Amino acid sequence: MLSLLSSSLNQAVQKLLGRTVTDVTLREYLRDIQRALIKADVDVNLVLNLTESIKKSAFNPPPGVTRKDHILYLTYKELVKLLGEKPVHPTLKRDSTVFLLVGIQGSGKTTTVAKLANFYKNKNYKVGVVCADTYRPAAYEQLKQLLKNIDIPVWWEKGKSSIELASSGVKKLKEEGFNIILIDTAGRHRDESTLMSEMKLIHNSVNPDNTILVVDGTIGQEARRQAEAFHQQAPLGYIIVTKLDGAARGGGAISAVAATGAPIIFIGTGEALGDLEEFDPTRFVSRLLGYGDLKSLVERVSRIEESVSEEKIRAMMQGRLTLEDLVTQMESLTKLGPLSSILSMLPGGFKVRQSIDTEEIENKVRKWKAILNSMTPKERSEPSIINSSRVRRIARGAGVEERDVRDLLKNYYRMRSLIKRIRGRRDFRKLLRGMSGT
Ligand SMILES: Nc1nc2c(ncn2[C@@H]2O[C@H](COP(=O)(O)OP(=O)(O)OP(=O)(O)O)[C@@H](O)[C@H]2O)c(=O)[nH]1
Ligand SMILES: [Mg+2]
Question: The domain 309-436 belongs to what CATH superfamily?
Fold first, then answer.
């Protein structure tokens, strides 16, 4: 799938991973990414914006995240932003749901109808197909041929107009209790306006639940015009991009369509019935970059970004550091986990130097949490009242050594004085990175 784009993006990433990140390597990496995307026909402005965003924060990773991880994360996030963040699913009603598929000639409508029929049949829906293509004599035969092995009926009658076929077919299949009814239409028209008017006519006669535009992925940026025209006419309409198997310009088609705001629900990746995939931008991007497990890296980095929110940092900088803050910050470091474990699962087995001893920090966090729990609220908010006898009581309550309690307090005071010292400077990240050295 999109193998060319995927392999060039993958190469760029591998090259970055094999080097130390400097201004020069970053520039080269961004150029590689640009080249890969532009070659796949992604809009140049979109590409420039994307690499500019990566560049802007590349050297400012949150605490505990290496530059490389962060750059990878930013690349992923920007690509996902380009393609739409969340997967979208067509509406399914309880009794029966009608899908109308439209598109220009040869875009893959008939094949996609068969693929959708197969997809929903595998989910145990009772699926029926209506052939409303009257222009192509072999359309009915084509559908029957495609569907003969999976036992799905095709409704068609000689001598009827496409509108008559669509409405009588839907009525009949509804009466017979079909849950999913797919209407295949003719793709005679080359220009958008006639396509749209036909769509409206059929639309008005059957009032489908889901109208889907089928777009050929090999046309690259051109896909945008179709998607735009369609999206204006059918704001709730979905898009399926076909022929993405090995399509050099598929990246362009997908990004162009996504840019119009029309949700892509499936992509077609071959001629066989099974070659249909639900479109999930995040999974798609992971695969483009060649990282099955990029998702977990991304989740971890996002969590850290959340826990080190600016508001928190500002509060801490203003001297309101609490014991809980200290523990939360330490914990966020452990959640990242070493990227090396993810990378070593890949062929080639990359080894990345670990900057943090996660296990040690995890141990500490576990103890510190127990310690916090055995403190009174007053002790937690005013640690200065904790004398030796309180230390003893807290340690006993937490099931740890007294020195663990002292260690937490020591770290807390050290952190507080560090904050005092650098307060006024906008060196937040350095401060937080300092915490990992405790
Ligand atoms: N490689 C590949 N070929 C596809 C895909 N989808 C459709 N095709 C092929 O594209 C050609 C046209 O597909 P159809 O489904 O007949 O297209 P259509 O939109 O129904 O065409 P008309 O009804 O003539 O407008 C056929 O040879 C299909 O096998 C796909 O995802 N990948
Ligand atoms: Mg057809």
Answer: Signal recognition particle, SRP54 subunit, M-domain (1.10.260.30)
Which of 100, 111, 273 has the most ligand 1 atoms within 8 A of CB, as the residue to mutate?
A: 111
The model's pLDDT over 220-237, given as tens digits with 9 standing for 90+, comes to 888 888 888 888 877 778
For ligand 1, residues with CB inside 6 Å are 103, 105-111, 133, 136, 187, 242-243, 245, 268-271, 275
pLDDT of 8-40, one tens digit each? Answer: 888 888 888 888 889 999 999 999 999 988 888
| Nearest atom, ligand 1, residue 114 CA | 15
Under CATH, domain 97-279 is a member of which superfamily?
P-loop containing nucleotide triphosphate hydrolases (3.40.50.300)
pLDDT of residue 7: 80
User: d(Cα 143, Cα 232) in Å, to the nearest integer?
Assistant: 30
> What CATH class is the domain 3-83?
mainly alpha
Residue nearest to atom 27 of ligand 1 (CA): 271
Nearest residue by C-alpha to atom 14 in ligand 1? 108
DSSP string, 251-313: HHHHHHHHHTTPPEEEEE-SSSTT-EEE--HHHHHHHHHT-TTHHHHHHHHHHHHHHT-HHHH
How remote is the CA of residue 105 from the centroid of ligand 2, in Å?
Answer: 7
Helix (H) or strand (E) holding 184: strand 180-185
Tell me the pLDDT band of 201, cut-offs 50, 70 and 90.
confident
In the structure, ligand 2 is a single-atom ion and the residues with CB under 5 Å from it are 109-110
Q: What are phi and psi of 71, to 5 degrees?
A: -65, -40
CA 261 – ligand 2 centroid, Å: 26
Residue 27 neighbours by CB under 8 Å, 6+ apart: none
Q: Which atom in ligand 1 lies closest to the alpha carbon of residue 115?
A: 6
